[in-house]
Amino acid sequence: MNIVPDTSAVVDGRVSERVESGAYEGATITVPEAVVGELEWQANEGHDTGWEGIEELQRLIGLAEDGTITVEYHGARPDAGQKRDADEGEIDAIVRDVAADLDATLLTSDVVQAEVSKAKGLTVEYVEPRGREEGGDEGLEIEQFFDETTMSVHLRAGAKPKAKRGAIGDMHYETIRDGATTEAEMKEFAHDVMETARASPDGFVELDEPGMTIVQYRSYRIAVARPPFADGFEITAVRPIVKTDLDDYEFADDLKQRLLERQRGVLISGAPGAGKSTFAQAVAEFLASHDNAVKTMEKPRDLQVGSDITQYTALGGDMAKTADSLLLVRPDYTIYDEVRKTDDFEVFADMRLAGVGMVGVVHATRAIDALQRLVGRVELGMIPQVVDTVVYIEAGRVDTVYDVTTEVKVPEGLTAEDLARPVIQIADFETGKPAYEIYTFNRQVVTVPLGDDEGSETGVSRLARKEVEREIRSIARGHVEVELKGQNEAVVYVEEDDISYVIGKGGGRISDVEDRLGIDIDVRTLDERPGGSGGSGGSSGSDGSAAGREGTVVTPEVTSRHVVVDAGSAAEVGQTVEVRADGEYLFTATVGRGGEIQVSRGSAIADELERAIDDKRRITVVQA
């Protein structure tokens, strides 16, 4: 009897199993060199299947040394192209040719290989892939580490097993076993995860790259990391511990009505572990139960949604292709988990502008941060059309809901009618009270909090003071200090020699500044400062929340058209930051694509920044 096994049968260990059962006693096992080459390639790429297949070949050699069987190798090794195209059947075709040349029985666990071989007239023995026999899906070995309060289990070779346990908002990372996990245990767990995922209809391999495999099995998402991608052998298994209904959340009735009125653009934001995905699942199932066709876009797919909601992943590794496919399917709503990179925001925006209701899950430590991540990625005036609702989740509950609209108006705190511009208004959903405004001011996108605390300088007040200071500094030759008298009036203190120059002939120069900024300005000498201090509007950096933070030191680059500040190490794209010189506030800006802030040369902001650079002052970036 001559048996030719293919890669699937070798990896599954079905050859030695058949020998040990007595079915192949005295047989000649002819292993195609193409199988050896494929296993070697898989092992070099860090795939467990390669190592498992090599171990099976070593078992066969042991059986041959005992005289139970004869092992031979036959044929040529596959070339690099054939190994890369193994998924397209190149290696399987070589194995069939070997079986045909030797008039041997082909042993396989691959149903497609079996059927093609029969069509070619070969003798075929098909064995079910391991674990697919009836009753073979008995769960995962690592489930022993989970109890009803466990959200995730973390295993690493040579370290004690740990887990995150508790309730949402009150999780604790704790050791769950005294003994360290051995390398052998890790291999056993990893093998079990892979085999169970392949065998079970409730599991699939989401990602299989050198050094990293991600598996979805039932409600578990398991990541298996190996060197050299990781510095050690590690397994992380995560599962949701709570499944909720939209009625479990605050503002449930109002949110339901809002979602059902028409297709919406919603960002669900919060810190890691806050319960964003749990809330997204509740929203998905509510929408699906109210006559909406709902799909999801996930990588990996781990939302626990009902069977009537189809979950899509990145098509060919590209969510843009998934979006193109979904636009043909035309869902009423799509849940996008998670929106992180610029490409994700662009896909989200494209689908929303095509008329699809979109619900995106975004990491953010404040509700406003989720919206600011769109700045620089989506045209400013289009943001309310892309996102009209922001839901911030904290400790498993709805903490804040914002309503996002746009209006052409004079920004809050400014007065001149010719300063009217498109303003994005972010209002508290419950009270309707405006909380922030986002607009373009002096060629920069600014996010201004609309506080009513009279005891501290508001965002618009600080912005107005600094803009007045910049404008006057571009005119005056000496020292300048500004004191704001309310949001629409300011007193400017300059050197006595600069008074007439700043005011200009007939007051024309200062009038131009007032018209540009929409603020009434009174020009006085520095000697007239109350107490000689320059008032509360000085540049000492004592303006409150962000001022006391040291920030990240940056080195601006001056080009022919811009002064470029690389803020990538200090903040993410879309975040609002303050740029300072030796701790003194210069301006507020939003980080654009590539993590850069670009200031057009010739502007008051650029002049001030260049002056600071020339003076070798320490330039820092601080998150606002």
From TrEMBL:
Pfam families reported for this sequence: PIN, T2SSE
Keyword Ion transport among record annotations: no
Taxonomy, superkingdom: Archaea
Entry-linked InterPro entries: AAA+_ATPase, KH_sf_prok-type, Nucleic_acid_metab_PIN/TRAM, P-loop_NTPase, PIN-like_dom_sf, PIN_dom, T2SS/T4SS_dom
CDD domains for the chain: PIN_VapC_VirB11L-ATPase-like
Keywords: RNA-binding
Domain AAA+ ATPase, first and last residues per copy: 262-387
Chain segments carrying region Disordered: 525-556
Sequence ranges of Gly residues compositional bias: 531-541
Single GO MF descriptor: RNA binding
Domain PIN stretches: 1-115
Family according to the record: In the N-terminal section; belongs to the PINc/VapC protein family.
Protein name: ATPase
Source organism of the structure: Haloplanus rallus
